[in-house]
Specification:
β1 and β2 (about 80-85) form a beta hairpin. By secondary structure, this protein is mainly α. The chain has 9 helices and 3 strands. It has a 3-stranded antiparallel sheet with strand order 1-2-3, with no helix packed on it. The radius of gyration is 17 Å and the shape is globular. The relative contact order is 0.18. It has a single domain (about 30-195), classed as Intergrase catalytic core (hpI Integrase, Chain A), CATH 1.10.443.
């Protein structure tokens, strides 16, 4: 879905920072709109793009994606899946995630002659580098409510766009791998992305 072209070489020095706070739940994130995700991918250089596409299309967390190995993917199954290893997930569960058809095709091309034990994505940018891509895409780091657009916001975007696309709350909860529906609906679905005006019209009395 989000296939674009971009060029860019990032100095490794720019990736140095005191700490990576992308997994800090105390930080409020926001969901990006579909058009913002496309613009972000246009700004991301080739060596990071597959990682961003994976985060956008699966809802994986940063650490989960970096721990993913080619042997965890079932790309030639009738319905391609990711078989997560319990030791690599936040919940310590061996969950299964579906892989969208377009992403599965990208992954088949990227796999080439890699081995099952090789990392699917070997690196993701740190916050300073990610912020440069946001600037290039014209996406603010924080919105007017102070919510950030760090890499973990891509997980928020995934959950929100699932809901916006008509996926039921229970299915979104399952795809997000939550055990509490309240977490899914309160934290990982951003009402600003929904057409609330249109939704309210459908509830008017006749």
């Amino acid at each position: 879905m989000y296939q674009t072209k971009a060029n860019g070489i990032q100095s490794p020095v720019a990736d140095v920072e005191k700490a990576d706070e992308s997994g800090d739940v105390r930080r409020e994130r926001r969901a990006l709109r579909a058009e913002e995700l496309v613009k972000l991918l246009e700004a991301v250089p080739d060596h990071y793009r597959l990682g961003y596409q994976m985060l956008m299309a699966t809802g994986l967390r940063r650490g989960e994606l970096l721990a993913l190995r080619w042997g965890d993917l079932r790309l030639n199954a009738p319905h391609p899946i990711i078989q997560l290893r319990a030791a690599t997930t936040k919940s310590k569960r061996a969950d299964v995630l579906p892989i969208r058809a377009d992403l599965a095709e990208l992954l088949r091309k990227a796999k080439a002659d890699t081995q099952d034990g090789d990392a699917v994505v070997s690196m993701l940018p740190r916050i300073p580098t990610h912020r440069k891509y946001l600037i290039a895409a014209g996406i603010p780091w924080q919105d007017d409510a102070g919510r950030r657009a760090d890499i973990h916001c891509l997980r928020h975007s995934y959950g929100t766009l699932l809901s916006k696309g008509g996926v039921s709350p229970r299915e979104v909860m399952s795809l997000m791998r939550h055990t509490d529906l309240r977490l899914t609906m309160k934290v990982y679905t951003n009402p600003r992305i929904f057409d609330l005006s249109g939704a309210s019209k459908s509830c008017r009395s006749t």
